[in-house]
Task: structure prediction
Amino acid sequence: MRALGVDLGTKRIGLATSDASGTLASPLQVLNRSGSRLQDHQAIAAIVKEYEIDCVVVGMPLSMSGAAGAAAQSATIEVSQMTSVVGVPVLTYDERLTTASAHQILQENNVPAKDRKNVIDKIAAAVMLQSWLDAQRNKVAHD
Result:
């Protein structure tokens, strides 16, 4: 199962994809917000078609306590809108600490601070997607 990880931001959307076996997530690209959610979702739908994606996994920005604040409520609305456009199931997954993990990965790889904003969103999407893939594999192993 090939999955697309989506890190929704107010200015950019980070995208990552899994390999065909659903084992490994890799950063794909960053979409700059167009100002139209419909256009953004259509761009995601084109990627879903191009990469033969089976499901979309959107990071849910829960608070550290696990509560759904304003950002999570906004993401829930956007996921609902996206579902009618992309043509495959759209799931959500906890994205707490993914951006912090992405920053750490970029620092460890000596990516200059000025270059990080161009890639941070797709790295965060890959971190979130990898976590989801691992959880799916563990779920199957325990069933």
Summary: The helical segments are 37-50, 70-86, 98-108, 113-116, 120-142. The first helix runs from residue 37 to 50. DSSP finds five helices and five strands in the chain.
